[in-house]
Amino acid sequence: MATTIDSLFGVHEQALIYRSKRAEVLASNMANADTPGYKARDFDFKSVLNRLNTAAGHVTQTHHQHIGFDKTPATVALAYRTPLSASLDGNTVDAQVEQAKYAQNAMDYQTSLRFVNGKISSYLSALRGE
Amino acid sequence: MSLYNIFDVAGSGMSVQTTRLNLVASNMANAETVSSSTGETYRARQPIFAEVLDGAMANQQSAAKKVRVLGVVESQSPLRSEYAPQHPMANQDGYIFKPNVNVVEEMANMMSASQSYKNNVEVLNTAKQLLQQTLKIGQ
Question: What region holds the Flagellar basal-body/hook protein C-terminal domain (chain B) (predicted)?
């Protein structure tokens, strides 16, 4: 049971932020599907979330007057995708691969959203005493 | 919010694909435009795309990369010259010059452009749905 409003949504609050960041990266890949020399980029969602969990797990604010810290790292390390097939113009975007990843990412975003909504509705019903 | 940047990114993608479709239309329309000298003859045009590296988006440490049209280049492949002395546009030697537009290539180019355009529309629609659902949190 979460005790503060900060930890109410658990990992899903951060997951939503990084899911939307990843959607942005994948959208950029698809917009640049015909740009010569453009290299498709992505980041490993799992490792970003793991790093976040361990970083937040070791540091906790023990007093409300202590200086707060930002739990979100400002940037995520973007990596270049290994292309399935080389193209003459140096572009490594495979529109189908990007589309599939974008769809999967959107589904995962909706999943996190569903969890957040579930938390809110369960807290609301607890508050109302239904 | 990162999802809002997707509107810009996908919008830029749609914009450059529209330019590409425009050039295809222009090439197809002028595929049979005859002239009497090589200098005046229409040449097939192609857009060159490039990612946008500067601008407001880079300052926000954003991962979004928009796309833009760097320029339009004319094809350097040889023009089609034809011996047609009766043609009103024929030069002194009786030759007319036709553009170096390859209609089959242009058709393939058109399909590729329209597919890329559709992809960007899909990306935009999905981002829009995600945002709408996010706005409805807790309702």
Answer: 93-136
What's the number of domains chain A is made of?
Answer: 1
Contact indicator for A79, A40 with CB cutoff of 8 Å: no
Under a CB-based contact definition with an 8 Å cutoff, are residues B76 and B22 in contact? no
Residue A17 lies in a domain: yes
* pLDDT tens track for A104-127: 999 999 999 999 999 999 888 999
Q: Using CA coordinates, name the residue in chain B closest to A28.
A: B65
Q: What is the residue range of A51's domain?
A: 9-128
Mean pLDDT for the stretch of residues B16-33: 95
Cβ atoms within 10 Å of A61's Cβ, excluding its own: 13
Q: What angle do CA B61, B67, B72 make, to 5 degrees?
A: 145
Note whether residue A112 is domain-resident. Answer: yes
Opening angle at CA A109, ends A108 and A111, nearest 5: 60
- Tell me if A3 is assigned to some domain: no
CA distance to partner chain A, nearest, from residue B91 (Å) = 40
Number of structural domains in chain B: 1
**Assigned domain for A4 exists:** no
Domain that holds residue B55: 3-137
pLDDT digits (tens, 9 = 90+) for A20-34: 999 999 999 999 999
Taking the CA of residue B51 and the nearest CA in chain A, the distance in Å comes to 7
The rounded distance, in Å, linking the Cα atoms of A78 and A67 is: 30
Cross-chain CB nearest to B9 (options A31, A36, A99): A31
Q: Which of B59, B60, B2 is nearest to A28 (CA)?
A: B2
